[in-house]
């Protein structure tokens, strides 16, 4: 019989229900088309105009999706952002989400991105232009730290401090900007190319009667 805490066997209790409350959403979808020749040329051109970031390289331009040759890509990503708001946020406030800043990361072997979250943004996204699921992943960190440090016998959704996803070219990941995330040291010889972006919204939120109304133009 399986052993539990201090060697005491697990007890079979048919009436036990463990509810999962307040989950953090990580939305993963796929760009349902290949990038055009022109879009790939722009990505390649941007690679020659990068600056050193913490652990990797990124574009000096932090509004790459405003490039006229990437306007269709921006529209495609915006559709997913709207779908996220419909499925996850689920508000009836009259708001319009939009992409604010956007930049491209280029990561080579052994490069990394330290754990961080995004300020002045409601949700953040990553579109993987080039990645291999055999060697490339994205790791999220628990936002609220546990009060006690216990030696874990078997990790689960309740006791783990991190959660990772293997990613590949074409994947699009959306998540709350307050959710900490990182990229472990890069394995493999491929250059991992990802387009990251932040999202905010315009419109009216809150409730006038409850004195929480806020108009964002």
In short:
This protein is 14% helix and 33% strand.
Number of strands: 12
Number of domains: 1
The computed structural class is alpha+beta
Number of DSSP helices?
A: 2
Strand content: 25-35%
What is the average per-residue confidence, as pLDDT, rounded to a whole number? Answer: 93
- The CATH topology corresponds to Jelly Rolls
Which stretches are low in confidence, meaning pLDDT under 50 for 5 or more residues running? none
Give a description of the structure.
The chain has 217 residues and is α+β, with helices and mostly antiparallel strands. The protein has a single domain, classed as Jelly Rolls (Sandwich). The protein is built from two helices and twelve strands; from the N terminus they run βαββαβββββββββ. Strands 1, 2, 3, 4, 6, 9, 11 and 12 form an eight-stranded antiparallel beta sheet that branches. Strands 5-10-7-8 form a four-stranded antiparallel beta sheet, with no helix packed on it. The longest helix has 19 residues. It is globular and about 65 Å long. The model has no long low-confidence stretch (mean pLDDT 93).
Structural descriptors:
217 residues; 12 strands; globular; Jelly Rolls; 2 helices; alpha+beta; 33% strand
